[in-house]
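pls design
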């Protein structure tokens, strides 16, 4: 079986070395040595002003919303993992969906302003597959209308835009360190704050029950992460450049084999990418489903990431039509991509996709001839 993704694991002895020290210290959680060290190393690697390590990427989004004291409408994207929307709902805010750019698949900034009302407080946009949103245009709109900007950067670890860390844009960015990500801590996430000390203090309080010493300052939650998870992060961070290089090589092999056979999202030349995913866009949902079935028949996993379009979720109070997102969600499939995926398997996967494209072309041609 070829999985759609597979976590990188460091040499076991390196992890064992860090873990063995925990048996001596007995300090397993509550902002321990490894958590603080990981935050410092991430700040340096990502070139960001502050980093708060938390339990997962979803709680990072919720804490971002809480720390900015958002209460009303938040403009967001329908093309993302479900946590982007549910985080807004869990914080008792209202998601207002704006359709996506058909090229980058990120929120379309040209459609944001028409969605702004007197109740709009923020924009929560996702760097889809690690592809940057139009951060300059979003910043311009946010300043004009006095809105906060949160970026769901769960896929964007290590991505740079015009030579700068993508995480430096917006008021807050959030990261996921789930095992499926290029950089992982098994489970985990982080909040990157660009707003200074006041919001830093708020995030720190919210992450740890809302208390400082013996005083309960605000209504916080337990969003901390453990020394065991942080130790995995410290080990993996040493290998992240090699991991990204390996994923780039695999992606370029796909590119060569699938050239002109499938549509792909657009990534600007200004972007230093992290190769988090390898999505391909089929002409129809039927074609996607047939290709997915053929991959499964060959013991190859793929994933409809993201499906369905979030604006169509049945538990939403208000539904907003987002035709581009709805169409793209039906036609996008992520192919296997992870460190250790060999060229022979990539070629096998690509040949199945190419075969399905050829079969589809032949079917369409026969249909046209039949009609004539």
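designed seq:
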């Amino acid at each position: 079986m070829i999985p759609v993704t597979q976590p990188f694991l460091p040499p076991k002895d390196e992890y064992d070395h860090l873990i063995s020290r925990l048996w001596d210290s007995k300090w397993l959680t509550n902002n321990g040595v490894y958590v603080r060290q990981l935050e410092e190393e991430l700040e340096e690697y990502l070139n960001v002003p502050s980093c708060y390590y938390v339990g997962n990427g979803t709680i990072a989004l919720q804490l971002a919303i809480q720390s900015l004291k958002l209460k009303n409408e938040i403009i967001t994207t329908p093309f993302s993992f479900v946590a982007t929307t549910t985080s807004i709902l869990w914080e008792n805010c209202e998601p207002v969906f704006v359709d996506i750019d058909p090229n980058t698949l990120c929120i379309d900034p040209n459609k944001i302003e028409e969605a702004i009302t007197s109740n709009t407080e923020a924009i929560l946009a996702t760097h889809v597959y690690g592809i940057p949103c139009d951060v300059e245009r979003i910043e311009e709109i946010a300043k004009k209308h006095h809105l906060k900007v949160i970026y769901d950067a769960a896929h964007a670890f290590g991505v740079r835009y015009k030579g700068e860390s993508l995480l430096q844009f917006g008021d807050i960015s959030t990261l996921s360190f789930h095992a499926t990500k290029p950089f992982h801590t098994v489970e985990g996430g982080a909040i990157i704050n660009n707003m200074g000390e006041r919001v830093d203090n708020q995030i720190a309080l919210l992450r740890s029950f809302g208390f400082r010493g013996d005083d309960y300052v605000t209504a916080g939650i337990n969003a901390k992460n453990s020394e065991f998870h942080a130790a995995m992060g410290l080990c993996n961070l040493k290998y992240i450049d090699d991991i990204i290089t390996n994923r780039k090589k695999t992606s370029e092999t796909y590119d060569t084999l699938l050239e002109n056979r499938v549509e792909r999202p657009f990534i600007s030349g200004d972007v230093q990418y992290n190769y988090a995913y390898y999505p391909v866009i089929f002409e129809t949902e039927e074609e996607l489903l047939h290709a997915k079935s053929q991959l499964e028949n060959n013991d190859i996993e793929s994933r409809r990431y993201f499906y369905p379009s979030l604006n169509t979720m049945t538990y939403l109070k208000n539904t907003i039509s987002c035709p581009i997102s709805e169409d793209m969600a039906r036609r996008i499939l992520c192919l296997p991509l992870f460190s250790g995926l060999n060229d022979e398997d990539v070629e096998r996967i690509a040949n199945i996709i190419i075969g399905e494209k050829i079969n589809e072309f032949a079917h369409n041609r026969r249909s046209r001839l039949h009609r004539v």
